[in-house]
């Protein structure tokens, strides 16, 4: 099982941060490989999201489901099929960590665990003569880079401007 855990300080209160991470439909703004998100549900526990990805010569729809919500501290999800993966966003109040010119802050955690070797080879339309093992080898190192980009872009969206976001890496594949 591989795991990515990143955190950063967001210059907003936990409620504001939570409302942004809760809205999966905005995620294509944060991940260029994510083309579209469709929802079946009201955003609560049990809501299912189809996330349409395209990268290189591959297209894939990840079918996810919200498994837990403890607003404004936590939102958990899992993939329903094709690969063993689950994750969560955690938000902790961090007002004492706010810079002097910022009213308050929160620490945002992105935490995902996945087993790339559980991927269903029939779920992805692979180009001719390309093996699933090769695709896993190509995608695996990119997942961490994409997670960093998503968190940075999410912070810019929450705060309304781009800034140099310091990420703390708690765990990454190979660590």
From TrEMBL:
Transmembrane segments: none
Organism: Halovivax asiaticus JCM 14624
Protein name from the UniProt record: Polyketide cyclase/dehydrase
Matching Gene3D superfamilies: 3.30.530.20
Record Pfam families: Polyketide_cyc2
